[in-house]
Specification:
Largest sheet: 7 strands, mixed
Radius of gyration: 14 Å
Structural class: mainly beta
Shape: globular
Order of helices and strands: EEEEEEEEEEE
Mean pLDDT: 95
Oligomer: single chain
């Protein structure tokens, strides 16, 4: 059974940093992308960024230059490094793994940016 478990969320002051982790377990074939999404209260879920099988990345304009997605294949973990955090980055952050046929989601981790 495939499981994605996020960790690393918390409360941080504006301008601070956090690193989120998404640990993947289970047998998966044909991974295409892993992505980070976020959903703020009262808003729709939005894509933060993706890392593709070839290692290339995509970022939403709102986080470009501040957030970085990278992975550790040996640990089956994908990370989201978030710098220069703003109050508008407050949301539940979830990771998603996509294959040609399926998509798997974690339950999410709360990130709160506040002074």
């Amino acid at each position: 059974q495939v499981q994605l478990v996020e960790s690393g969320g918390g409360l941080v002051q504006p301008g601070g940093s956090l690193k989120l982790s998404c640990a993947v377990s289970g047998s998966i074939f044909g991974i295409k992308t892993m992505g980070w999404y976020r959903q703020a209260p009262g808003k729709q879920r939005e894509l933060v960024g993706d890392i593709f099988i070839d290692g290339s990345t995509y970022y939403a304009d709102s986080v470009k230059g501040r957030f970085t997605i990278f992975r550790d294949n040996a640990k089956n973990t994908v990370y989201l490094q978030m710098n220069s955090l703003k109050p508008e980055d407050t949301a539940v952050y979830s990771c998603k793994l996509s294959t040609a046929l399926n998509a798997y989601w974690g339950k999410g981790t709360q990130v709160t940016v506040s002074s």
